[in-house]
Amino acid sequence: MTARTLLLIRHGESTANVAAAAAEASGADVVAVEARDADVTLSPLGERQATALGSRLREALPADAVLFSSPYRRAVQTARFALGEEVVLRLDERLRDRELGILDRLTAIGVERRLPLEAERRRWTGKFYYRPPGGESWTDVALRIRSFLRDALAEGGVVVVFAHDAVVSLFLYVLLEMTEAQLAQYLLTHPVANASVTELTFDGAGWTLEAFADDSHLADAGLPATEHPGEVRTDA
């Protein structure tokens, strides 16, 4: 049996999202985060965003929907604020955010100042294939997603995934059979907003994108939408 609907949800705004935006705006080299990436929590706004997301999900999800999450705290918190502590949530490490290795916690200007050779190597290799020392390329994450899909889609019905910016983007790359160039062009004008819902459906022959990064539930709740980039950019 194959899942007919896949809902991909990016976590609500995190404290690291806020810290990264502040660091970039001030020209700092390093993002002042309070914890390792796996332990970063939602910001107060992110908690409210996740709660607003819950109003939408509870109306849309059937009782037998299967829920998966990245094990990272901000993704789990998003699921819990949206659907409650009692919901059955399957944690899968293949859904974790992309690991940045040596670039972790550095802003774009910080990479240029402290690791100029890495910044140049990334520009030469391109965002999609560049693998920072100790980290992952986007293609590494795509391999994780392909592995996850082989298991998760066998569940059938509706599958919900709580994850991260790059992970949501790469689900599209895999399921819609995009090229590197097609994904890059699409993401130029389609950011993955915090607490947004991306929906794909399967008709027996292939996958169709029904909605991308829809965060209209935030406006309905009177909350601001946020579109923090999910990782450092050294090609800007």
Describe this structure in words.
This protein is an alpha/beta fold and 236 residues long. It has one domain: Phosphoglycerate mutase-like (Rossmann fold). It has nine helices and six strands. Strands 3-2-4-1-5-6 form a six-stranded mixed sheet. Helix 3 links the parallel strand 2 and strand 3. The mean pLDDT is 95.
Strand content: 5-15%
Q: Tell me, what is the CATH class?
A: Alpha Beta
Helix content: 40-55%
Return the CATH architecture: 3-Layer(aba) Sandwich
Distance between the termini: 43 Å
Number of strands: 6
Could you name the ranges where pLDDT drops below 50 across 5 or more consecutive residues? none
Helix count from the secondary structure assignment: 9
Number of separate structural domains: 1
- Write the CATH fold name: Rossmann fold
Shape: globular
Major β-sheet strand ordering? 3-2-4-1-5-6
Sheet with the most strands, sense and barrel status: 6 strands, mixed
Q: What is the typical, i.e. mean, pLDDT?
A: 95
Classified in CATH, the superfamily is Phosphoglycerate mutase-like
Structural class: alpha/beta
List SSEs in N-to-C order: EHHEHEHHHEHHEEH
- In angstroms, what is the radius of gyration? 17 Å
Topology:
Layout: E1 3-10, H1 15-26, H2 44-60, E2 66-69, H3 73-83, E3 90-91, H4 108-114, H5 116-125, H6 138-152, E4 157-163, H7 165-175, H8 180-189, E5 197-202, E6 207-214, H9 216-220
Parallel strand pairs: 1-4, 2-3, 2-4
Antiparallel strand pairs: 1-5, 5-6
Helix pairs in contact: 2-3, 4-5, 6-7, 7-8
